[in-house]
Sequence to fold (239 residues):
Amino acid sequence: MLQRDYRRSGNAEDERRLIAFQTALLRVFGDLNRSFQSRQEFSDIVARSFRKFLTGFDAVFTLNQDLLLELQYHRREDVALWHNTRWLGAEMPGLRPLPVTDHFNRASDKWRPEEPFQSNARMQPYYKLHGSSGWLTDDGQPLLVIGRDKTGTIAHHPILHWTYQQFERHLHRDDTRLMVIGYGFGDEHINHGLVDAHRAGKLRVIYLVHPSGKAIISSKCPELLKVPCMCPVTLPAAY
Fold:
């Protein structure tokens, strides 16, 4: 609501309220990101690690705005991780890393959109559909999508609009197989993209990892039950 109000009015009071809320939210993300930096989240046994598992995908899309994967996946200089894969590493297409201000606190790293937005065929693309706690606009403002007016925010920022287009493009490839980890099917624009790909005959199968299994689809987006859905594991809710 605060983002929408400021976009509509542009007045100083709406800007003050928006900045105050975003500042508080970014403090929470800052604590979370420092926690991810200070401990080992993924196994260092590369062959059996979750990081190695991720290298097998054509692209990775996330709705999360923390820096877990930036800190422990795509920024790691790990030759063994990318050995025998088609990639040299991972990248966030369309984002330029800003100069590092604190080499001991990589959780404070920042990125800024840079046109023309494009991906490198030798790098695994990693897209953040709702922006990131580490992204900044040209005027230094946070660039992350929060609240109910997500489609309005996405349409307002070229990098977010382009990133969502990449999501739709990948969904509409022939014989698309999608792995969904932890998504609660609560975002209508994401669900709409999945349903469109299914109706177009492109979405072949969904591999779903969620504590509720297929029940989460039936309650939030029942049309997707028409897509073959595999639940390789149902995690306990406390995971």
User: Anything to note?
Assistant: The mean pLDDT is 88. The longest helix spans residues 12-38. The CA atoms of residues 154 and 161 lie 5 Å apart. DSSP finds nine helices and ten strands in the chain.
